[in-house]
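Subject line: Sequence and fold of a protein, written as structure tokens
Area: Proteins and the way their chains fold up in space.
Start of record: The labelled sequence and token lines come straight after this line.
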Amino acid sequence: MLMTSARLIIMRGYLLTLGRLSIFTRLLRWFLLKLLVRGKKEKYVPSARFFSMNELED
């Protein structure tokens, strides 16, 4: 999700009006966490080499 000019203006307006009240700040934090962090799948990284624990002990 890229921050465009319109989104920045909307966010700034929200923070100047409703963002001053703690309940709305918590709601915004909850929404952004849910949108950006939670529920993301782990990224798949293909690997051609696997190792065992015996290879690490030396």
Observations:
- The chain has three helices and no strands.
- The chain has a mean pLDDT of 82.
- The two ends are 46 Å apart (CA to CA).
- The CA atoms of residues 47 and 53 lie 17 Å apart.
